[in-house]
Write a structure and sequence with these properties.
The structure holds two protein chains of two kinds.
Chain A (H helix, E strand, L loop, with lengths): L6 H6 L3 E2 L4 H23 L4 H23 L1 E4 L3 E6 L5 E6 L3 E8 L1 H5 L2 E8 L7 E7 H15 L14 E2 L2 H10 L2 H15 L7 H19 L2 H32 L3 E5 L2 E6 L4 E7 L3 E8 L1 H5 L2 E8 L4 H7 L5 E7 H11 L10 E3 L4 H24 L3 H22 L1 E4 L3 E7 L3 E7 L5 E6 L1 H5 L2 E7 L11 E6 H14 L12
Antiparallel strand pairs in A: 1-2, 2-3, 3-4, 5-6, 5-11, 6-7, 8-9, 9-10, 10-11, 12-13, 12-18, 13-14, 15-16, 16-17, 17-18, 19-20, 20-21
Helix pairs in contact in A: 2-3, 6-9, 7-9, 13-14
Chain B lengths: L1 E2 L4 E5 L5 E7 L2 H6 L1 E8 L6 E8 H11 L9
Antiparallel strand pairs in B: 1-2, 3-4, 4-5
The chains are: A alpha+beta, B alpha+beta.
């Protein structure tokens, strides 16, 4: 201790500065928000005062970014990081290494050109990261991470790349991931919504293209002889659309998951991924709140599963804009490897070995009935136009739904072994959600009028760090008595027991 | 906490999971002497749990009882 410099003596030294080009990256970050209006102004502007103000504003921003990055200095102390920054109001912040929960590195194509990176250090509290270093050289980021590893995890600060990766994604794996997922549908849907909001489809080159395609198709359809030709044309269109969606999915998968790697070192896991923007993130394993395992039907044919996790962190900013948080443990891995990953993060939570218990025996009827009711109403309405033809359609939908409901109820189940709660659901596409009960934040039992008629109830366990829109750890269609017993056991298990220390996140 | 007539919902949040609590009173509520108590957790779907229409004293008393005084909270 005597030989290492103390914090106060460190602050006397010059400290380290950001990369000389930092101001450019700060500027780019600031301009991102005003980029679109600025470009529109420059393209469509008529040289008025508005345009002039925009340019002056941009110059002022650049000056501010330059001075800000000059003012930013940091020191790596024995057990804490010291950051000094600010132009008018100077801030000196001491961040103990032990408080830093997540380390996120982000490199887009601009960062890669100059071999620099943006480093974010996040703690459990607060809305913003404790420190954002935008930008420093990759070597310097490695040095900081090594210092953190040495201090936080008390493991030897070996070079990170030396650790054998647990999961990697070869290009062939990424192609499989793209094929078995439907990420493109969200994008296509979004594009359709945006185009409906704007006039893009009424005038301009996009509108011309759409008009030409519609004209050709309707022209062909008019000249087609007989229903067989129409069926083949429509069939071909569906196939082309399907292939286009899958190609887009593969491309999107490459953007996000090219070169994916997961490493475990001591009590931390770290991932790196991305084709154009490289995202590196790491987190302590005991901060993992839930695991979500998913398997689409094509992934099951390939014998593969996806594993993702929720990490507890108070930093909301990272989960929104920057997207830097650790989320994917294995985007698509062979079942055995997926089990290894789960075992490594939540020992004893392998989804294939949990003591699964079935839902209420009538669960399939609850899934099936709404479809039957809706299909009957729809068929009744449709009968006004298509007459008795709605009867075979009704039979088809209702029997298809029966198959789905029986399959769903057969697979869906829950498991509770005192320490771990898990739920699985699905038919062709399957999903498992696993959580440690002591990490829970709250338990809810809810009953809809239909639940009460069948004396069923729904139990859910709330955890920190979960996505509001994502799947919930929720067990539907349980026998009401069983649900109440389960909820009582869960409520007792949350944060309780002797191991309260460090159990919040 | 229990609520709902047709859609019934019961939520349990252990005391050790309460991050902080709010007691709110609007102008009208102040005249009538009622208040609402809001309990915040670090969770997602149960992040806020509220009771409306409590008498003000009862809300304060409930809050004082809910607050974790044994210092076992582990953030």
């Amino acid at each position: 201790m005597d030989e290492t410099p103390s914090s106060s003596s460190l602050a006397g030294t010059a400290g380290r500065r950001l990369h000389p080009l930092s101001w450019a990256f700060v500027l780019v970050n600031q301009l991102k928000e005003v980029a679109l209006p600025l470009v529109l102004l420059l393209v469509f502007g008529r040289g008025g005062w508005l345009e002039f103000t925009g340019i002056v504003g941009a110059i002022l921003l650049a000056g501010y970014a330059f001075l800000y990055s000059l003012s930013f200095r940091y020191w790596l102390g024995v057990d804490e990081l010291i950051v000094k920054k600010g132009l008018i109001g100077r801030t000196e912040r001491h961040v103990p290494y032990a408080r830093i929960q997540n380390v996120v590195q982000r490199r887009n194509i601009l960062h890669r050109l100059f071999d620099v990176t943006e480093l974010r250090l996040e703690s459990a509290g607060g809305v913003r990261p404790e420190a954002i270093m935008n930008v420093i050289t990759v070597a310097e980021a490695d040095r900081i991470e090594a210092a953190l590893r040495g201090a936080v995890a008390a493991v030897p600060a070996t070079a990170d790349p030396a650790v054998e990766p647990l999961v990697t994604m070869a290009p062939a794996d990424v192609v499989k991931l793209g094929l078995s997922s439907n990420r493109s549908i969200v994008w296509v849907g979004g594009a359709v919504l945006v185009s409906l909001q704007t006039d893009l489809w009424r005038e301009g080159p996009a509108a011309d293209l759409i008009g030409a395609i519609t004209a050709t198709v309707s022209d062909r359809l008019q000249h087609l002889a007989g229903p067989i030709a129409i069926v083949t044309t429509v069939g071909a269109a569906v196939v082309v659309g399907f292939v286009a969606l899958k190609v887009l999915s593969v491309a999107l998968s490459f953007l996000t998951f090219h070169g994916f790697v997961l490493r475990r070192q001591g009590d931390r896991v770290s991932t790196g991924t991305g084709l154009i923007t490289w995202n590196a993130a790491s987190a302590r394993i005991d901060k993992v709140q839930r695991l979500i395992v998913e398997e689409s039907w094509l992934a099951r044919l390939l014998g593969r599963r996806a594993v993702q996790c929720d990490i507890a962190t108070g930093v909301q900013e990272a989960s929104e804009g920057a997207g830097g948080q650790l989320r994917w443990l294995a985007p698509l891995a062979p079942v055995r490897l997926a089990s290894e990953v789960i075992e490594s993060v939540l020992p004893g939570a392998d989804v294939d070995r949990l003591p699964w218990r079935p839902l209420h025996p009538k669960a399939w009827r609850r899934q099936w009935t709404p479809v039957v009711v809706l299909a009957t109403i729809a068929a009744g309405v449709a009968a006004f136009w298509i007459g008795v033809a709605s009867i075979p359609a009704w039979i088809g939908i209702v029997s298809g739904a029966l198959l789905w409901a029986r399959g769903w109820a057969q697979f869906s189940a829950y498991a509770f072994d005192g320490g771990t709660l898990a739920v699985r659901s699905g038919w062709l596409a399957r999903r498992w959600i696993v959580a440690r009960v002591k990490k829970g934040q709250g338990v809810a039992v809810s009953e809809s009028p239909f639940d009460r008629r069948h004396s069923m109830a729904n139990v859910s366990l709330d955890t920190a760090g979960a996505s509001y829109t994502g799947p919930q750890l929720e067990i539907p269609y349980l026998d009401a008595g069983e649900a109440r017993a389960l909820a009582t056991a869960l409520a007792g298990g949350i944060g309780g027991g002797p191991n309260l220390k460090g159990s919040m996140e | 906490m229990t609520r709902g007539v047709w859609w019934r919902n019961e939520s349990f949040v252990p005391r050790s999971r309460i991050q902080h609590t709010d007691v709110n009173q609007g102008p009208l509520a102040r005249r009538l002497g009622i208040a609402s108590l809001l309990v915040h957790t670090a969770g997602t779907h149960l992040a806020h749990l509220g009771v409306n229409g409590l008498p003000h004293e009862a809300a304060i008393e409930l809050r004082d009882r809910l607050l974790n005084r044994d210092g076992r909270d582990a953030v």
